[in-house]
Amino acid sequence: MAFITNKEKEVNTNITNIRTINEVHKDAMNKGISIVPFDIYKYVNSFDNIEINFNDDSLFPFTGLIEKYQDGFVVTISKYVVSERQREILAVLFAHLILHKDYILQNRKIAIRNLETRDKTRKEAIDFASKLLMPKATFTIIGRELRTIENVAKYFKVTSRMVNKRLFNLWDWLF
Q: pLDDT tens digits for 118-169?
């Protein structure tokens, strides 16, 4: 007679093993975290070495900051921006951690004022964040169903500006 044991999945709390959107989504699903809309707070909080803070005036003129501290990272987000924008800022800073970790380790921090930029590394992080918050397959289906940028933004809990960035990236991909 064979016995089947139900072992609990080992939860990965090491950010160094994650490099792609698919790996992030797979890791989140293994942790029981919602992918659509992506629960960016719960996901980032699932890592032992990342702390999220909401700050007041001391962050000004920046809206977000990721800093290296001892054995981990601290993400600080302005409490004065709307919740959808806070989600986007957290996703962009998390994307920087995945894509540009060596830069953060060498320079101790990355700060952002807004999500408009010509900087290549910032564009990479924003693109990653838009894909993270709005997965392509779901984004396409929801876009067809809801039809307006505002409705799609509400569904994914992001700003209309982020929806436009995702649309632009998909448009580039099609051609």
A: 789 999 999 999 999 999 999 999 999 998 999 999 999 999 999 999 998 8
What distance in Å separates the CA atoms of residue 67 and residue 152, rounded to the nearest whole number?
32
Place of tokens 């709307």: 82
User: Confidence band (pLDDT; 50, 70, 90) for 5?
Assistant: very low
Nearest Cα neighbor of 64 from 122, 15, 112, 96 is 112
For residue 67, the tally of other CB atoms under 10 A from its CB is: 17
At 77, the amino acid letter reads I
Burial zone of 24 (CB within 10 Å; 0-12 exposed, 13-18 middle, 19+ buried): buried
101 to 56, 59, 85, 107, 168: CA distances (angstroms)? 26, 21, 23, 10, 26
